[in-house]
Design a protein that fits this description.
The complex is a heterodimer of chains A (448) and B (260). Chain A is built from 13 helices and 14 strands. Chain A has 448 residues and is an alpha+beta fold. Chain A folds into three domains: 18-166, no CATH class; 183-289 and 301-314, 2-Layer Sandwich (Dna Ligase, domain 1); 359-447, no CATH class. The termini of chain A are far apart. In chain B, helix 5 runs parallel beside helix 6. The chains are: A alpha+beta (448), B alpha/beta (260). At the A-B interface, helix 12, strand 7, strand 9 and strand 11 of A face helix 2, strand 3, helix 4, strand 4 and helix 5 of B.
C-alpha cells in the first residue's frame, strides 16, 4: 500500500520516514532491558524479542505474572506489545504474532499440535507462501495431517525443518545477544536506588555473593561486568578487569568503586533509580585457595593491584607494559600492551645493539635538514623553529621498510646526531635519494 | 592527668613526632645509603631542566636514578607516569633504548595520564604500593605544585619505601625559586660535546648541579657547582666525567663515526 492510499483511507494518518538502523538500535536497547528477566535474550527482527525463561519464571511469580509484568513495563515505556510463552522458541514466536497465549511447559505433543495447527501458514516463516496457498494449504494443521515425504518433495526440506521447530519436535537454542556468564548474582530493589553510596553498598554486597559462588568452584574473577537496570528501561554497564584472578570482595568492590567514581563525574545517570543490579564474572581463572591473608600481600601483588586500580580509574589502555616484538622497524619493535592483558615477559638480552634513543615520538616529527651530500648526514637542521648545528654524528643505519605489508614505505637512514650544545637526536632521512624519491625528507624520531 | 604526668606527656609526644618524621632508630635504612654520595634521590626528589630544551635530559637523569634505585631492590618494579603533554613534547619512553641504557623493561609499567592532577594522584598511589621507584613527568606549573602536594607525595614515598622522582619541565630555570617538601632537587642540562674522544657515546651523560639534598646529609654539595656525570648501564652507577667514555666500536667501523 502506498502512502497516498493510506492517507486516502485515513486522512489523519501520521507519517515518518523509515529508519531501519534506528529501529534496530531500539530493538537492541530493548533486548538489553529484557535481560533483567533472563540473560538469554535475543532480538527477533524486525520487532520482537525472544527470551529463554527456562527455570526463571518462578522468580517472577509464575508465567502469567511474568508475562503481565513484561507487558506492563513495555506499555509504560510506550510500546504496545503482545507476548506468548511456549515450550519452544519457534512456537512462541508464532503465537506471539498470531495468537498470544501462554502454554504450560507440561503441554503434551497432541496439545501443541492442536494449538499450532490453528495458526496460519505465515507462521512458518517460509520465504514464499504462494506455493502452499496454491496447493490449498491454509493452516499449519493442513501440513500436519499430511504425510511428510510428499511435503518435503514439494516444498523443500527447510519447510519441514520449520514445521518441526514450530511443533516443538526440534528445539533450536536461543542465541543470546550477549553470552550469559557462568557466574552471576543479582539483587532487586523494589524502590529503586538513586544515592551513590547506596549503589556502592549494593555493589559491595553483590561482590561478596559473587565471591561465595566463585569459592565453591575454586575460581577467581579476572573480568567483571556490572549491569544497572533503570526503572524506565535504560541499562548502564560497567566493566573492570584485574591482572590476576581475584576472589576477595574488598578488592573487587574497590575496582568497581574506582570505575564508578570516574563515571560519576560524567554521570552514571541514575534517573528515577536502578531497580535491578546484576554482577557477573565474565572471565574467570582457577585460583587455589591460599591461606587467608594474615600478612600484607607481597610487594609484587600490591604493585599489580595498584596497576589494576589505576586502569579502572584511567582506562585500561592507559596502563601499559612494554613488550618486545620481532620487528626491525623501530616503532614496531616495541609495543605497549595494556598491563592486565599480558604478564611481564622478560626481554631478550642483546649484546651488541645499534644506538636506540631513550624517548621515541609516536609519530616522527618533520625537520628541515641540510646535508652536504644527498646520502650524507645532516649538517644543520631546524626542529620546532630552533636551529641545531651538528657537532658529532654516527650513522647511517639503514632500516628498510616491511616490504611485505607496506608497498609504498621508503627506506630510512637513521643518524645519531649530537648538536653543539650536547643534545642528542635520532634523525632519519625518509627515502633513498636516487632510487626511491628525488626529494627525501628528514624526520626526528627520538631523543636521548 | 596529674601534674607529674606533664613531662611524660611531652616525652610521649616527642617520640610520636620523631616516629612520624622518620628520625631515629625506627628509620628505614635506604639500601643505597652510601655515605658522601650527593646523588642520593631520597624518598622524593625533583629534577628540573636548566632550559626548556633540556627536558629530555632531565627525564634521562630521572631514569638513571630510578635504574640505580631498582638495582638495590631486586624484584621491585618501576612505575613511569607520563602525561599526554610530555608524550607530545619529548616522546614516550622507548623500550629498546631503556634496555640499552641499563633497565630491564619488563620491570617497567607505563602509566599515561591526561592532566597534572591525575599524574600526582597516580604517583601517590604508585608510591604507596611499594614500587621500587616511581618516575613522573608532569607539565604542571611550579605555582600549582606546592608544599601541600609535595608533602603528600613525600609521606606516600616514606610509607612505601620506594624512590619518587618528579620531573618538572615547566620549572626550567626556576630551580631556586620555589620551595617544596621534596628532600632533593637536581637541575640537569646537556653536557657539551668534548673536543677529543667521547664519541660515539652510548651512555647517558649529564651536566647537573645539586640544588639541595637533605637526604644525603653526609655529602656537602655546593649548589652552584655544575658537574659532568655519566651513567654506566653495565654497573648502573654514576661516575664523574673528565673524559667521556667512547663506545666500543662493535659493528661500528671506525670509518663510520665522524666528527664534523
Amino acid at each position: 500500500m502506498s502512502a497516498a492510499d493510506a492517507r486516502a483511507m485515513r486522512p489523519a494518518l501520521r507519517l515518518a520516514p523509515a529508519d531501519p538502523q534506528a529501529d534496530a538500535a531500539l530493538l537492541e536497547r530493548l533486548c538489553d532491558w529484557s535481560r533483567r528477566y533472563t540473560p538469554l535474550a535475543a532480538p527477533d527482527a524486525p520487532c520482537g524479542l525472544l527470551l529463554d525463561i527456562t527455570g526463571a519464571s518462578h522468580l517472577f511469580g509464575g508465567e502469567a505474572a511474568m508475562c503481565g509484568d513484561v507487558l506492563e513495563r513495555l506499555r509504560r515505556q510506550g510500546f504496545a506489545a503482545r507476548a506468548a510463552i511456549a515450550p519452544g522458541p519457534a512456537l512462541a514466536r508464532a503465537l506471539a504474532r498470531f495468537a498470544p497465549q501462554i502454554l504450560p511447559p507440561a503441554a503434551t505433543q497432541a496439545q501443541i499440535d492442536a494449538i499450532a495447527g490453528a495458526l496460519p501458514i505465515a507462521a512458518l516463516g517460509l520465504a514464499d507462501d504462494a506455493p502452499a496457498l496454491r496447493a490449498g494449504l491454509a493452516r499449519i494443521g493442513d501440513f500436519l495431517s499430511r504425510p511428510r515425504a510428499p511435503l518435503a518433495a514439494r516444498f523443500g526440506k527447510e519447510a519441514l525443518a520449520r514445521l518441526d521447530a514450530l511443533t516443538c519436535r526440534r528445539r533450536d537454542p536461543v542465541t543470546p545477544r550477549f553470552e550469559a556468564a557462568d557466574f552471576m548474582v543479582e539483587r532487586r530493589f523494589p524502590e529503586g536506588l538513586t544515592a551513590q553510596d547506596a549503589i556502592e553498598a549494593a555493589l559491595t554486597a553483590l561482590c561478596a555473593d559473587l565471591c561465595h559462588l566463585l569459592e565453591r568452584h575454586g575460581l577467581g574473577a579476572r573480568r567483571l561486568a556490572a549491569a544497572f537496570f533503570r526503572v524506565d528501561g535504560a541499562v548502564k554497564h560497567l566493566r573492570v578487569g584485574a591482572s590476576r584472578p581475584l576472589r576477595e570482595p574488598a578488592r573487587l568492590a574497590s575496582l568497581l568503586r574506582e570505575r564508578l567514581a570516574v563515571l560519576a563525574e560524567d554521570g552514571l545517570d541514575t534517573g528515577c533509580g536502578f531497580d535491578v543490579l546484576r554482577l557477573e564474572a565474565s572471565q574467570t581463572q582457577p585460583l587455589d585457595s591460599a591461606a587467608a591473608g594474615f600478612f600484607e600481600p607481597p610487594s609484587g601483588e600490591a604493585f599489580e593491584d595498584m596497576l589494576d586500580r589505576l586502569a579502572a580509574r584511567l582506562g585500561p589502555e592507559r596502563v601499559l607494559r612494554l613488550s618486545p616484538q620481532a620487528a626491525h622497524v623501530p616503532e614496531l619493535a616495541v609495543t605497549a600492551v595494556p598491563a592486565r592483558a599480558a604478564p611481564a615477559a622478560p626481554w631478550p638480552q642483546e649484546e651488541e645493539t645499534p644506538p636506540r634513543p631513550l624517548r621515541l615520538f609516536e609519530t616522527p616529527e618533520p625537520v628541515e635538514a641540510l646535508a652536504l651530500a644527498p646520502d650524507g648526514p645532516p649538517m644543520r637542521f631546524r626542529w620546532r623553529r630552533a636551529l641545531h648545528e651538528t657537532a658529532n654524528w654516527e650513522g647511517p643505519e639503514r632500516i628498510a621498510p616491511q616490504w611485505w605489508t607496506d608497498f609504498s614505505a621508503a627506506t630510512r637512514d637513521y643518524f645519531h646526531v649530537e648538536d653543539k650544545e650536547g643534545r642528542r637526536f635520532w634523525l632519519f632521512r625518509d627515502g633513498l635519494y636516487d632510487s626511491e624519491t628525488p626529494h627525501p625528507r628528514w624526520f626526528l624520531h627520538g631523543l636521548w | 592527668m596529674a601534674r607529674g604526668g606533664f613531662s611524660e606527656r611531652l616525652g610521649f609526644l616527642r617520640r610520636r613526632i620523631a616516629a612520624l618524621e622518620g628520625v631515629g632508630a625506627g628509620q628505614i635504612l635506604r639500601p643505597e645509603a652510601a655515605a658522601g654520595d650527593p646523588l642520593q634521590p631520597g624518598p622524593l626528589s625533583e629534577i628540573l631542566p636548566a632550559a626548556p630544551r633540556d627536558a629530555p635530559v632531565a627525564a634521562a637523569l630521572a631514569f638513571a636514578l630510578a635504574a640505580r634505585a631498582l638495582e638495590a631492590r631486586p624484584g621491585a618494579a618501576l612505575a613511569w607516569i607520563v602525561e599526554d603533554m610530555s608524550a607530545r613534547e619529548i616522546g614516550l619512553p622507548y623500550g629498546r633504548g631503556l634496555a640499552a641504557a641499563g633497565l630491564d623493561p619488563s620491570r617497567l609499567a607505563l602509566i599515561r595520564t591526561r592532566r597534572p592532577r591525575e599524574t600526582f594522584e597516580a604517583m601517590e598511589e604508585a608510591l604507596r604500593s611499594r614500587a621500587g621507584a616511581v618516575v613522573a613527568e608532569s607539565w604542571e606549573t611550579p605555582g600549582r605544585y606546592d608544599l601541600l602536594a609535595s608533602r603528600r607525595l613525600l609521606l606516600a614515598a616514606r610509607r612505601g619505601g620506594g624512590v619518587g622522582l618528579l620531573v618538572l619541565p615547566r620549572a626550567a630555570g626556576a630551580a631556586q625559586r620555589f620551595s617544596t617538601a621534596a628532600e632533593a632537587r637536581f637541575e640537569a642540562a646537556a653536557a657539551p660535546p668534548q673536543q677529543s674522544g667521547g664519541w660515539p657515546c652510548d651512555h647517558p651523560v649529564f651536566r647537573l648541579r645539586i640544588v639541595k639534598n637533605r637526604a644525603a646529609p653526609g655529602a656537602s654539595a655546593d649548589p652552584n657547582v655544575w658537574r659532568d656525570v655519566a651513567f654506566d648501564p653495565q654497573t648502573r652507577s654514576f661516575h664523574a666525567l673528565s673524559r667521556r667514555p667512547s663506545a666500543a666500536s662493535a659493528d661500528r667501523p671506525a670509518a663510520e663515526a665522524r666528527r664534523a
